[in-house]
Write the structure tokens for this entry.
Amino acid sequence: MTAMVVMEMGRFLISTDRAKLDLDVIHKFLTHSYWAAGIPRATVARSIENSLCFGVYDDSNQIGFARVISDFATYAYVADVFILEPYRERGLAKELMASVMAHPQLQGLRRWSLATRDAHGLYAQFGFTALENPSRSMEIVDWELYSRS
């Protein structure tokens, strides 16, 4: 996948260039998040290798992240979206999601999904809604996998 600059907003940059990603920043945030608490660094690294990733930068410092898991034909799952606390309330999460949704390789997909317990206002702006038929969705959640990674 070719690296591309997605958006420049003043001093901030959103890019899909994997070489710019700071695994330390990403892992530190995720390991303290409600959805990936305690996730091993190796698991985060593997997830990045197998996803389309978007980094948000203030100069060369990574301050945000989003990851998309997709077949690039029919489906995309948005994961691990964050902006570091000191940079929130500046519209960066909205710009990040706009960049994700506008990415050329993610156009024409039949279905997008994500899981969240907060920030529904952000995602609703991009057309995300609660599952229409949650009884049609299934999952396996194995938190023990983290301890075996």
Notes: The helical segments are 23-31, 41-49, 92-102, 120-124, 144-148. The radius of gyration is 15 Å. The longest strand covers residues 61-70. The chain has a mean pLDDT of 89.
